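Progress against Task 2.4 (sequence-to-structure conversion) is shown through the following example record, which the project officer requested during the mid-term review.
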Amino acid sequence: MPPSHYERIGGAKTLQKLTHRFYQLMNELPEAKGIRKLHPANLQNSEDKLFKFLSGWMGGPQLFVNEYGHPMLRQRHLPFPIGDVERDQWLLCMNRALQDIVPDEQLRAELSASFAKVANHMRNRA
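C-alpha cells generated for the chain above:
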C-alpha cells in the first residue's frame, strides 16, 4: 500500500506547520480579507480544528472524528456565506501555505487538487 498523504507530508509536525502557516497567511494577506472576516478574532480554535480534520483527511489519526464526530463539512459551513470569492481566498492561503511548507512538488499538486475539490463543495452562495 502506498504511503498516505499524512505520511508523505511528514506527519503531525509538518501538518501543524501547514495549518499554522495557512492561518498566518489568512491574517496577513489583504487578498484574504473576506475569508478572514468569516473567522473569529482568535484563530487558535480554527487552527486546531483544521489540523485535526486534515490529520484524518490525509490518512493519519482521526483526531477530528474522535473529538467531534463525523466532519459533515458542508453542513458545518452552511452558516457562513461561501461563494467563488471565499473559495478562491481560502485556496490562495492554502496553496501558498503548501508552497511554503511542502517541498515535494508532486505532493503539493495532489493536495492542491484535493483541496480545490473540497473548497468547491463548500460553496453555498452564488
